[in-house]
Design goal:
Elements lengths: L1 E2 L8 E4 L2 E11 L8 E8 L5 E7 L3 E4 L3 E10 L3 E6 L5 E5 H4 L11 E7 L2 E6 L3 E9 L12 E6 L3 E6 L7 E5 L4 E5 L1
Antiparallel strand pairs: 1-6, 2-3, 2-6, 3-4, 4-5, 7-8, 7-10, 8-9, 10-11, 12-13, 12-15, 13-14, 15-16
Length: 186
Amino acid sequence: MILTLDLKPGHTIELDGRVMQVVSAERHKTVGRGAGMVRTKLRDIHTGNIYEKTFRSTEKVADAFVEHREHQYLYNDAASYYFMDTENYEQVQLVAEQVGQQSRWLKEGETVTLTTYQGRLIGIKVPNTVDRQVEKTDPGVRGDTAQGGSKPAVIEGNVTVDVPLFIEVGDAIRVDTNTAEYVGRG
């Protein structure tokens, strides 16, 4: 059991017979003698639906025991993605629907984290930042702007990112996978 006051984004709990992952948790103090409140947004890991739930800060919820294992991305074919467990070298095959939008950040040989609950895959997590090579962008013209400026660039994985004007085709850049924003040079 865990206090609702200790809930953080990414935490997985069992609630009303369902397994939920915390998307956000805001703590609110009440006036007077009452206990504080915790307002949460929870995502049902089986359906993907988002629910809002408010708890008293003194309530407890059941902790769901999930397993996080590192896997190396190997390759993909028309319908599946293949990963190898870095500890026991077993291969795992996932269909495109299981990988979802994370597929654009996958690169052969890189490590991702697969999360399972009772043997069932509930999520795939790529690193927060990745280094990718710029495949296509317009040349930056010196003097285009007085304050920095940016231009669109297509990087490996066919992702479009706004980059500074000095970035050229072939440059390695670091990108935040949560926001698809340029972080710096790779």
